[in-house]
Each structure stands twice: as C-alpha cells, then as structure tokens.
Amino acid sequence: MLRPEVIRKRVQKLEEYLAILERYRGYLREEFLRDPEKYGSAERFLQLAIETINDMASHVIAEQGLGEVNANRDYARLLREHGYITPALEERWIRMIGFRNIPVHNYLDVDRDIVFDILQNDLDDLRALRDVFAHFL
C-alpha cells in the first residue's frame, strides 16, 4: 500500500534541494566554474534531487505493482507506460539519471559547464517530476 508519508518526506526534501539549487542558478558562469565549493555543492544537490525522485518512483512502482525495475531508467519507462508522465518527461528524466551516474561513478569526468547549464535550464524538469509524485499525497 502506498504510504503518503514516504512521498511527503521526499517531496519536502526535494523542495529543499531545489531551493538550494535555485540560489546557485544566480551566479555568472565564470564565477560558478572557478569556485569548487559552488560547483561541488551544486553537483551534490543535483545528485540528491535525482536520487530523491528515483526513490519516490521506486516506492510508487513497488506499491502500485507497476512492474519490474532492473535499471534506474526503468522508473521513467514504467511511469510513462502507466500514464503518469509524458514521453518527453521520460526522456528528460533518463538524461537526469545519466547525469547522476557521472558524479556517482565517474566523478573525475564531471563537466562543470554541464552542471551550470542544468542549473540554468533544467530545474523545471525536477519540479515537474516533483509534481507528479505530489499527486500521490
């Protein structure tokens, strides 16, 4: 059975992470890229935001019996197949998962410009996914 408190706690954390990421959005590219505390913190909070979304997806999929998850990208596919997200949002989520894997597994290869671009252009995708899961409350 879906437990709203599981989703609620994660939605609240995601909102916290988004507020932090929004602050980093205000820096000029050069200032952001030359400060390891800024880009390192932004990387980490992006990773946490994506992990939080994946965690909510895992809970919903398991509790609603939506299918089997063999890889993180299955979260997006299963939610799209069951009508919770659009194909476009599925694609963007899969790209987020790909980004998340870089700081986790290939941390030496993180491109700071990509982190900056995500902050400037993709936070609304995280908000859209937050809203999908907020509907389960």
TrEMBL record:
Keyword terms of this UniProt record: Hydrolase, Nuclease, Toxin-antitoxin system
Annotated SUPFAM superfamilies: Nucleotidyltransferase substrate binding subunit/domain
Keyword Hydrolase tagged: yes
Pfam families: HepT-like (PF01934)
Alphabetized GO MF terms: hydrolase activity; RNA nuclease activity
Entry-linked InterPro entries: HepT-like, HepT-like_sf, Type_VII_TA_RNase
Record keyword Nuclease present: yes
Any one cellular-component term (Gene Ontology): toxin-antitoxin complex
Family, as annotated: Belongs to the HepT RNase toxin family.
Protein name: DUF86 domain-containing protein
Species: Pelomicrobium methylotrophicum
